Amino acid sequence: MTAVAVREPGTATVLGRAAAAEWLRLRTVRTTWWCLLAATVTIVGIGVILAYDADDVTASGELPPATAAGEFGVVLGQFALLVLVLLAVTQEYASGAITPTLQWTPRRGVLLAARLAVPVLAATAVGVLLALAADIAAWFIADLAFSPGDVAGSLGRVAAVLLAGGALAIGVGLLLRSTAGALATVFLLQLVLPFLLPAFGVQWMADLGELLPGSGAIWTLLGEPEMTAGQATALLVGWAAVAVGLGGWSLLRRDAG
Amino acid sequence: MISVRGLTKQYGAVTAVDDLTFDVAPGKVTGFLGPNGAGKSTTMRMILGLDRPTSGSALVGGRPFARLAEPLRAAGALLDAGAVHPGRSGRDHLRVAARTHGIPLRRVDEVIEQVGLGPAARRRVKGYSLGMRQRLGIATALIGDPGVVLFDEPMNGLDLDGVRWIRRLVRGLADEGRTVLLSSHLMSEMEQTADHLVIIGRGRLIADASFQEVMRGQGAGRKVRVRTPSTDQLAGALLRRGAVVHPAGDGELLAEGVSAEAVGDVALEEAVAVHRLAEEHSSLEQVYLDLTGDSVQYRVAGAPELVAQR
Fold this sequence. Notes:
B: alpha/beta, 4-stranded antiparallel beta sheet, 12 helices
């Protein structure tokens, strides 16, 4: 082959193609569809159960708004979506598929951007739709208050939690590279420790729990534990940024895998 | 064209690749040889920007591979056939590759045909045999119609048909003017396919020469076997011309340091009958063992003696 001067496409084109490939990667493995099924069952299912049990949701016996259905659903159901996002990263390290991936997209910053954008946005979009479905189900089943303004605000909070959680999962996955390790880490930070640490009744443990990303997520969705919107935002954004920073360093600077 | 300059890779105290410098030219099959653990795969990974060199550089078509916008059009590689997501079908794997470069779907089906993957391409990779994985890996390497191809031990685990297929493919790629780098730890494979050899051991360059030069360089030992009824007369004549002659029994002589033509001419001058005349090359395998003898990393105790006896 003689060397021919070929006009190379610009970075925007390369990024667009990498994102399209990332989308195809997501669609062509079964785990994605299993995770979506699990998310659907959990989020809509919890919403429906909450609707049937609406009288007992608040201590005062006051009926919650329909948006509580989607929010409760997402507190648990987010894990199916975060697993989807996480596996998009760690499965490649487990199977060695990261080697061909980096041969096709050797500009690692481009891969990081595509990998951050596509699975996280896909999971967020699905989560928002499922939360909306849960809200509507609750509205029909228990005739809970359903105002478009409330619903829009609630779905915005769901989106914020899933965007931050997804970025955290990508970052942890890129840093640890192992499915088991990354899954355990995200699970602990996002759900187990925020609930578990305050339960010991020891002040410093409770304080520590409130510094975890999951506490910010739970506050955003349920309004607990006691903190300000600024603190919750700082937790969501701060943890996501640190995780993406470390994971991005790992992808950009270390050997492929 | 691949240019490797002073390429070095250290893992802690271990130097896997040690100051390698060589070029891989287009239009030829270049065999990349070395014992297991010599650093072949690490070198290929650095050429492809997968692993970061400790020092030195590697260029593909004059540029670092990791900066290319459309790398599959510059170089395609089969490194580890198993490194594919097991849950995806072979065709989907290729579709993802194609999508990273805006390559049309038609080309995906073309390479599936070219490597003979056929209907299996629609099955999940999980169920593929090693041979099918190798074919998928080669399809992936070829999808961008690259000017450079790198195959790391492509014949490992293949049956004879598969091996012959790869030999023909590799030959064809070189004949089309592409740069072909083919690694192996087996000399016998190279004897069939390679035009040029880059031999490394313990991460260091041992030889970078044409197949013939490598054979000749080692092959002070080119021998000529001649059968004649007049062994004593011919042996005496050859000795006078400076050849080393060994009796080979059964009316045969083995002469070193002369060509077959020279032996024939001498026989004519001496008017002795010649019933057989043949050049005997030392096998490439022997040459390789001689070259890499000191650099085998995982040597079985006692093995050097075995080698020496052969």
